[in-house]
Amino acid sequence: MGFFAAFAASAAVAAPGACLPVVEQGWIRAAPPTAQVYAAYARLHEPCGKAVTVTGARSPLFGAVQMHETRVVAGVSTMRGKGRVVLEPHGVLEFRPGGNHLMLLKPVHAMPVDGHVRIDFVLGDGRVVVGDFVVRADAP
User: Fold this and answer.
1) What b/e string do you get for 3-38 counting C-beta neighbours within 10 Å, with b at 16 or more?
2) For residue 40, which phi and psi values (nearest 5 degrees)?
3) Which of 11, 38, 9 is nearest to 22 (CA)?
4) 115 pLDDT band (50/70/90 cuts)?
5) For the domain that residue 58 is a member of, what is the CATH number?
6) Which of 33, 46, 39, 20 is nearest to 117 (CA)?
7) Range of the domain at 10
């Protein structure tokens, strides 16, 4: 199934006319062809005026997608998994280097620079928000 056909199929998960968060500026840091872990970043915008809980993420091109947070404590950078994040009404949640981000594990193949990857964000009510992520050699 092509990307846009898959996009349309996933977008249909929400009821017609339902207001959903929007994934903006999605990108994945390029890695060597043998990499088993990639990092992804984006902005998740909630335009509907209602708090939304993101309970996870997934992609057909990775065995697992995990939400993580990087923190610096006493000069030491640590990373920990986040089971869920809340997107406030009309808020923006940044997935960026050095903060919240997505860890993409077990790729089905190497991700070429300028390639596109679909990542679905799963909401607490079961709806799915589809994001288009571009593989980039450098941060945008």
Assistant:
1) eeeebeebeebbeeeeebbebebbbbbbbeeeeeeb
2) -125, 150
3) 11
4) very high
5) 2.60.40.1890
6) 39
7) 3-136
Residues ≥6 apart with Cβ < 8 Å to 4: none
Domain count, the chain: 1
Give dist(CA 92, CA 52) in Å, integer.
11
User: Cβ(128)–Cβ(7) under 8 Å?
Assistant: no
What is the mean predicted confidence (pLDDT) over 51-72?
Answer: 94
Q: Which tens digits make up the pLDDT trace of 16-33?
A: 557 899 999 999 999 999
Kindly report the pTM of this predicted structure: 0.82
User: Residue 41 is which amino acid?
Assistant: Y
List Cβ neighbours of 128 (8 Å cut-off, separation of 6 or more): 10, 13, 14, 120, 121, 122
Residue 13 pLDDT > 70: no
Q: How far apart are CA 34 and CA 79, in angstroms?
A: 23
- For the record, the structure tokens of 136 come out as 């980039």
